[in-house]
Amino acid sequence: MAEEAITTLRAELRSFGRAEEGFALLEMFLEVALPRLSDTVIDPRGLVLPNEMTDDRAVVQGLIDEIAADREPARRLLTAAERSYDVGDEQSRWDFTRLAYCSASASVWSKGRRTTYFEVVHHDRATYWLPDSLKAEYFDRISTKGWAIPEAWLQAIPKQPKPWWKRGR
After folding, report:
1. Would you say residue 115 has pLDDT above 90?
2. DSSP secondary-structure letter at 18?
3. Model pTM?
């Protein structure tokens, strides 16, 4: 069975009119993708409020301060620090959405951690990688809400994944 084509969508906060648009789109994505998700994690070290965030700055700073106070002492070298979120819970989904954009590393994984659907890297790069079926569900939900799908997302061209024997080359 052939794998679905994957569309790459850039999702940095600066690419939206307001940062809150990016948050709302990520929250909606998490709702749509929930049955397909495995883990949603952030690196809790070095959380920083993005300059683009206008609403909820004080609330999100409170979350960051709470995480900093709770953080365990550093573990061994080369051990990843991850904080998981149950995005099936509305409050946890809201927290994850804002903190993902504050983190140096945040990921939304498919079941079995086979595919990354969304990732934030170095506080300023954010990307969705969506198989056609999930992208269709997501875009349908955005349209049903009456929201505009970002123009760059509509123009993004899906790419067929390489066969497994050609990957890594």
Report:
1. no
2. S
3. 0.87
